Amino acid sequence: MKKLMNFKGLLLSGMMMLGMTAFAQDGASTTENYDQGFRLGFGLNGGVTTGDYFNFALGGDVRLQYDLSQRTSLTLTTGYTHLFGEDNVPDLGYIPAKAGFKAFVWGDRFYVLGEAGAGFAVTNDYNETTFLWAPGIGYANDVIDLSLRYEGANDFKTDQVALRIAYGFKL
Description:
Elements: H1 2-21, E1 38-49, E2 54-67, E3 72-85, E4 92-106, E5 110-121, E6 129-140, E7 144-153, E8 158-170
Antiparallel strand pairs: 1-2, 1-8, 2-3, 3-4, 4-5, 5-6, 6-7, 7-8
Protein name: Outer membrane protein beta-barrel domain-containing protein
Organism: Flavobacterium album
Signal peptide: 1-24
């Protein structure tokens, strides 16, 4: 448990340091004539869990993104995540509903993302709702979005480290 807490602290510290560099860029701004707008992305997720009750996670999501500038965006993400239980532990499926902030920190391709929201259990005997928080890093171009995130789900007694592969487009 102590190793997990150290991992969480290290991951959060790294995300904060990367996020601070997003606003410490030199040079003239290229956002004067930037056309703000919406993007929509459809993603597949696969990950490993860090708890004692589940083996791995699979899911899909839909992310709506509003570009504030060329380097910053607001996000809303929902979908479905299925956690596969160990031995006699039943599987758990939940619907995440998260809001977040995305900042490009290295050129216009690499970003950090922070999301927070709720996870609503929808399978078996689980009837809980949990707080979700998810820092992540990723790479995006006009259509492909690849990211790695840590997602904490306290009341489900597990967390996950997941890879997301998504297809996105402007609306």
